[in-house]
Structure formats: structure tokens, C-alpha cells
Amino acid sequence: MPLEASLHPVLDRHARQPQALVQMLRELQAVLGWLPREVLSAVAQATGRTVADVEGVASFYRFLHLAPVGQYRVLFSDNITDRMLGSVALMERLCQRLGVAPGAVRADGRVSVAPCSCTGLGDQGPALLINHHQVVTRLTEERVDAIADCIERQLPPAQWPAEWMEVDDQIRRADVLLGTPLTPGSAVLAARALGREATLEQVQRSGLRGRGGAGFATGLKWELCRDAPGTQRCVVCNADEGEPGTFKDRVLLRRHADLVFEGMTVAAWAVGARQGFVYLRGEYRFLLEHLQEVLQQRRAAGLLGTGIQGEAGFDFDIDIHVGAGAYVCGEESALLNSLEGHRGTPRIRPPFPVEVGYLGQPTTVNNVETFCAAAHILLRGGDWWASLGTPKSTGTKVHAISGDCARPGLYEYPLGTPIEQMLEDCGATNTQAVQVGGPSGTCLSVTEFGRRIAYEDVPSAGALMVFDRRRDMFEVARNFAHFFAHESCGFCTPCRVGTELLARRMDKLAAGQGSRHDMGVLQELDTLLHQSTHCGLGAAACNPLRDTLLKFRPSYEQRLQSLHFLPALDLDAELSIARAATGRQDGGAHWPPTHTDTP
Predict the structure, then answer these.
(1) Which of 216, 376, 445, 467 could anchor a disulfide with 471, C-beta 3.0 to 4.6 Å?
(2) How many whole angstroms separate alpha carbon 382 and alpha carbon 284?
(3) CB atoms < 10 A from the CB of 55, how many?
(4) Region 288-295: what's the mean pLDDT?
(5) Nearest residue to 560 (alpha-carbon basis) of 515, 522, 504
């Protein structure tokens, strides 16, 4: 397709607004397959940005490509639970069948195969993505062979067997959020009946805290946004759940999209916002059409747009921004930078988003589950929500459970529920460890399963990965170390370099070249990253190391080969190239050198 024919419809659809840059690039790549420099130049000219700026943005996101990546871009989820189900061997099998090296593009340009971070399908893995938007679940050797055949026959992914793309919700235990239907518009009607001030008061009375992990008081955040100076305000739904092991937002968006949008509209009423965004993680691109359809239905029903439910001056609408593959954009200020068409680098705070957020406007950023809870609170009252859970951790919490259990899926419990009950319900047996809240969370050993999911005990972003006694917890921590190194935004040196050093040191131990010295270096890296990184990603990168080193130390020590320093580099092997080039094999050409008196 000629460049002009593909370029102008995309630019026109986004009115050439510079803040829509990521969306323009994503849509152009969907047509062209990658982003040639001439495309970047044309987009730069149309949006009034420099070519260097546009190229810098495009190079930041994993799902945007500045070089050809193949007609079929196959990405295997590399989360630890996918690995436990055999994803590494399955990827090797596909590479062999297609005759392509991992991470490379085949000579004919048809296909490339590579690993990627968690795809949000941990309850039905191993899983992969085709061209960043088509998912394939429950991979087997037979399915991988059939995928190779489809690629060789150049069959478009849309024509592959539908059962390959089946994504089940797998709701195993439902409570308030997952099990109580809500009539569209009912929570908005209740909020209007209360008035803006009383709506905010009900959210504050509920004790609702953000369900994204940090646990900031939702009512306080909304109040700060409402009271911040400015004439325009914005409500943003953070649907970028990139933490490995999480997939609750996937189900809430797919099954309860109306509830999410209802909660956003209630927030808009409370803070006085006219504009809303859903920041949808790139791996959930397959949900886009469904979400747009629900939004259109709400507009037709008078629940979005001008004069919502006939209320003069209540004007609010929602757009969807699809991410392009960057875990760090789950941090709210990085998300806002991405939403504005920039690299997803976390901002320096203060000012906080509630004061200076999207395009400088006061902005409240809450996650999917938080907005769902807010809608229910407006229907049944803040005191009702506060009666659930514990006094310091009110309400219910949805958890995505995966790993070594018979029934992976979604489980909703009142906060304060013991972990041992969750393990029993999901069919986990012979469990040695549970990773709560993803890699940035907490790893618990069997002696701690009586602890409770609550902000005052074990806080959680909504993931529970289960590991039985077959698993090597060192390898679990090593997988997480590589995840953080891969996902570092590179803005600050301690994180950019420190996460890479952490991954390499773990690899050194895995290769059987470990020593007590390496254990000391790992602890030094832990201290460095916790004290000096720009944002929470770097600070959390050593959490798995610290927990597993403390609770599963034999898994590390069995890899130590020396009490003293042991180099990872085999210098004599490296000198073999020089020996081959010079034809020397004498003692002086080796390390350590061996000298004799023989001339």
C-alpha cells in the first residue's frame, strides 16, 4: 500500500495531535508491519515534532519496530508460570519447525520468533502473541506444529482455528465485584441524586484504597484532584496491568466493562472532569473492539457525552489509548507521559498527577478494580463497603491465581482472608512458596501461609503465583531479575545498570561459577537499587532476590563453587582466538602463562 494512502487516514483520525503520537505509530505499524524512517519523518512533520523526538518515542516501546520484524511476529510469554508449563521447549520447537533463530527474522522476511514479558494469560498458558494483538492460549506441541504450518502457508492469523484464540474468564470465586450485576447508569443516577459533595463523602466513608498495589485512599485522591487549581480535569483508568502473574483486569474489562466505565463516570461527577481515558495495555489489544462497542452503547443510552442522564453541565466522555509494550507505564506518571505521546518515563514528583497530570490538568488515575468498587459503593453506600474486610483494609479484593494449582483463575475474597484458605480453594498441594503481588511483591514460605491479604499484613496488587516443592526458587528469582532488567526504562543509571548487573550475577550462579563474593555483590546491588533509583521499578527489582535469599538460601548456596572470588570470564578460552590467528600454542600464549627453559 502506498505510504500516502495509509498515512493520512491515521493522521486525520487523530487530528494530527502530538499527544496521539503513540496511537498513530501503533496504527501505522499495524498497516505497514514496521516503522520506516520516512514514516517517522512524515508523522513528525504532521504533528510539529522533531524526527529525533518521534524516533525516540518509537524506540522506547517494545511493540514498535524501527526495522522489519517479519510478516508474522511470534512472541512467547516468558513469565515463570509459562516456563513451568514448558514454554521454552515449545518456542524452540517452533523455531526449529520454521528454521529461524530466536530473536532473528528469517531470511525470507516472513517470520520472527522471540520471548516477551507476561501476556496476562497465566491462567491458560503457555501463551503467545501474534503480531502483538492476536493471542494463542494453551500451547501444546501439536498446536505449535499447526501454527508453523499456518505460517508456512501464509494463512492470516484471523483465519486460524478459533479455539486457539479462546480466552476463558475462569472466575472461580465471585463476591461483590465479580458476582453482582449492575444496571448501566444506576450508580451514576445514585451519584447525581446525592450530589457531587456527598458522592465524594460516600467514597471516603467506604475506606476504599487503590487496588493497584500502593493502596492510596481513593476518596482523598479524588478530593485533591477536585480541589486543585485548574479549569479542566481528567479521569484516567490504568488498565496497564503488566505485573507478571496478573490478569484480573483482563477479566473485568471483558466481562464487566460497563461497571468500569460506570465507576469512571462517577469519578468524573465527583471531581468535575469532562475527559476520560482508559490506558489499555498493549497485550490486551484483542479487547479493544469490545470496549469500544460498550462505550458506543453508553453514548447511545445517554450515559456518556453531553448532558449525561439529562443533567445540564454533566459532560464526560472516554477514549481508549492502547499501550505499546512497556511495563513501566503501569506507574501513573509514566502512564501519563505515554498518554501525552512521549516515552513512558516516570516523572519527578511533586507535583503529583492530582495537581499536574494529563496535559497539565489535575488528573485522578485509578485502576480498573478501583473504579468497579466505586460504582458499587455509590449504589450501596460507603458504610456497606466499610463493613467488608477489615477496619484498615475495607472491601473485597480480586486475585489472579496461577502456577502449581489445580484451579487457576480469579478469586474474590474480603480483605483479611488468610493465604492458606486461598491455596486450599485453588487446589494447591505440597506448596513451598507463594509470590504475592507479582515480582515486585512479597515471596512467602510455608511458615507464613497463615498471614492475611490486607494492607496491614500482606498487601497485594492482585496476583498469587503458587510454587510447589518441585520448583527451584533460585530460578524463579532469576526469571524475575531478567524481567526487571528487560523492563527498565533506562532513565536512571542505578536502575539501567543495576538491574542488568543483577541479572548477570544470577546467570553467573546458574552457570556454576558462583562464590561467596557473588553473594556479597548481590546484597550490595539490593542496597544500591533500593536507595538510589528514580522510581519504584528499580527499588522493587531486588525484592525477589531478598525474599528468596532469606527463605530459600540453600537454593543459592548449592550453586557456589568457591568461598573466594571466581571469575565468570574464562580468559584462556578467550585467548583461543588470538592463538588461532597467530598459530601459537606455547605456554606464553595461555592464561595463566606457563614458562619453561626450553627455547
Answers:
(1) 467
(2) 32
(3) 17
(4) 98
(5) 515
The mean-pLDDT minimum among 98-102, 184-188, 215-219, 580-584 falls in: 580-584
119 contact partners, CB below 8 Å, separation of at least 6: 75, 77, 79, 127, 128, 129, 135, 283
Sheet strand arrangement including 463-468: 171-173, 409-414, 396-403, 463-468, 431-436, 442-445
Altogether, the residues listed in the chain come to a count of 599
Q: How far is 300 from 321, CA to CA, in rounded Å?
A: 21
CA dihedral over 114, 116, 121, 126, signed as positive or negative: positive
Tell me the pLDDT tens digit for each residue of 161-219: 999 999 999 999 999 999 998 999 999 999 999 999 999 999 999 999 999 877 899 99
Q: Which residues pair with 367 in a beta bridge?
A: 238
Helix H or strand E segment including 402: strand 396-403
Q: Please give the radius of gyration of the chain, using alpha carbons only, rounded to the nearest integer.
A: 26
What is the predicted pLDDT for the residue at 561?
A: 78
Measured between its terminal Cα atoms, the distance across the chain in Å is 72
CA distance 190 to 384: 15
Closest by CA position to 484, among listed 457, 503, 504, 508: 503
Q: What is the DSSP letter of 464?
A: E
Q: Where are the alpha helices (DSSP H) in 488-515?
A: 493-510
